[in-house]
């Protein structure tokens, strides 16, 4: 039996969404996304402390790679899990898996065990992020969909703030294991709310095809580059990295001819700017890929405490989140296209400035400038990102295809983040043990990639009609 919500007219209010029978539903949908969103920054804030206790510096970037790869896989399975197990069952699977992964992380005696826990967390997190959006239509009346979507989306920004604050506090007291136990506890508590609050939804067999070949090529490519990051510098490193690049190219070639891929078909139409939109998003993902190492640089080079270093690690996302609120208000098509073009340049200049400021024994002024330059780098993403969605929607006259094109932006971002985090780990490992050299090399390399992204961003803006 299905609990179907009738179509209702009128505009819902925040009070209606956050009180009465809708409140626990909103808590489950938003809470699941918040757990996923904050977990990224919780972990990056804790990593220097974790590595100091259990070792595994050479696998530092793998903590992000394992989580993102697992998230990619389960994000493709959201509809199938929801259809097979219903709303409550899907959330119990997602939250239970996330809690299990968190407990594995908490008990980790070595970095490989921690990586296993991170992968299990990612499996649950990928489901939680997708369910938060998919369930809006099924669990809330139509008049509350817009406010529900706004609430769920806002959790990414809230996670950007809570993650480094909470993670930094736990790291400050060396209580990183307790942090993961609390994450598991939060997931269990939300499970009880889900069992009470969520409506019954239709169950059956899903006809949706899972793009296993594409997922396999992406995963293998990321793993190949990850292996290159831990091999001694030499022929093996070159071969592993080359294998990763080849697998990435095979992924693109397969997507181009497949009808069962991850990306919409229009992305490969030479007349469409959609490919340029996705490549611009990928360029921004490379900037985001530096965030995992910024708390490490803050502690090792700037001699910051874990809390302050965690906040430094989120400075780029702060810039992104704050600036995009204002950028989204730009309505002129010409101005929107200009912001898309200038975004990668601002990102590149911010990363380059942060890299140039890396030196042993930095003064307080230099430390403040670290925050400023990273915030500026993030603001470049905030300038362009809202309008990339508009460009994707305008890349075709077909409304349904436009919606698919815009929805795939998040998928592209996650895939590119997995590659960028792995490449960042390889660059840092090669430059160690000189931490200053590692920071400069990473930031200068990704700054060049960002500025080169203007090649794509100029074409990406063509999806916005005058």
Automatic annotation (TrEMBL):
Major facilitator superfamily (MFS) profile domain location: 25-465
Transmembrane segments: 25-47, 59-78, 90-109, 115-136, 148-170, 176-197, 209-228, 234-254, 275-297, 303-326, 338-357, 369-393, 405-432, 438-456
Entry keywords, A to Z: Membrane, Transmembrane, Transmembrane helix
Listed Pfam families: MFS_1
Location, primary (coarse class): membrane
Signal peptide as annotated in the record: none
Its membrane topology: Multi-pass membrane protein
GO cellular component, one term: plasma membrane
Top-rank lineage group of the source organism: Bacteria
Protein location: Cell membrane
UniProt GO molecular function: transmembrane transporter activity
Protein name, per record: MFS family permease
């Amino acid at each position: 039996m299905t609990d179907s919500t009738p179509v209702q007219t009128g505009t819902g209010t925040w009070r209606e969404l956050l009180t009465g029978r809708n409140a626990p539903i909103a808590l489950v949908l938003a809470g699941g996304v918040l757990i996923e969103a904050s977990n990224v920054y919780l972990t990056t804030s804790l990593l220097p402390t974790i590595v100091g206790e259990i070792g595994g510096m050479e696998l530092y970037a793998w903590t992000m790679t394992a989580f993102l790869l697992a998230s990619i896989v389960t994000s493709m399975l959201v509809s199938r899990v929801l259809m097979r197990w219903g709303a409550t069952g899907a959330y119990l699977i997602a939250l239970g898996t996330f809690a299990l992964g968190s407990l594995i992380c908490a008990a980790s005696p070595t970095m490989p065990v921690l990586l296993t826990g991170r992968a299990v967390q990612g499996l649950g997190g990928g489901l939680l992020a997708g369910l938060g959006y998919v369930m809006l239509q099924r669990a809330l009346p139509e008049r509350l969909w817009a406010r529900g979507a706004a609430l769920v989306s806002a959790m990414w920004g809230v996670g950007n703030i809570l993650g480094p604050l909470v993670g930094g506090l736990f790291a400050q007291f060396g209580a990183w294991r307790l942090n993961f136990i609390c994450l598991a506890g939060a997931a269990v508590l939300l499970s009880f709310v889900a069992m009470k609050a969520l409506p019954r939804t239709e169950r059956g067999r899903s006809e949706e095809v899972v793009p296993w070949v594409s997922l396999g090529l992406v995963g293998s490519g990321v793993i190949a580059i990850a292996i290159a990051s831990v091999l001694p510098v030499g022929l093996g490193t070159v071969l592993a990295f080359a294998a990763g690049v080849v697998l990435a190219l095979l992924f693109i070639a397969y997507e181009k001819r497949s009808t069962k891929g991850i990306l919409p078909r229009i992305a490969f139409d030479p007349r469409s700017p959609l490919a340029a939109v996705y490549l611009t998003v990928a360029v921004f993902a490379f900037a985001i890929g530096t965030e995992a190492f910024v708390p490490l640089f803050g502690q090792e080079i700037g001699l910051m405490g874990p809390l302050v270093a965690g906040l430094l690690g989120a400075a780029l996302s702060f810039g992104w989140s704050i600036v995009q609120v204002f950028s989204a208000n730009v309505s002129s098509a010409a101005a929107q296209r200009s912001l898309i073009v200038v975004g990668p340049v601002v990102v590149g200049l911010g990363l380059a400035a942060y890299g140039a400021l890396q030196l042993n024994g930095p003064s307080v002024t230099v430390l403040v400038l670290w925050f400023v330059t990273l915030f500026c780098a993030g603001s470049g993403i905030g300038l362009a990102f809202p309008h990339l969605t508009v460009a994707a929607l305008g890349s075709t006259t077909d409304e349904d295809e436009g919606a698919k094109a815009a929805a795939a932006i998040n998928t592209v971002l996650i895939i590119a983040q997995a590659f960028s985090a792995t490449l960042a780990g390889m660059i840092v490992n090669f430059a160690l043990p000189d931490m200053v050299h590692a920071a400069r090399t990473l930031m200068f390399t990704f700054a060049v990639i960002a500025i080169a992204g203007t090649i794509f961003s100029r074409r990406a803006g063509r999806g916005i009609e005058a």
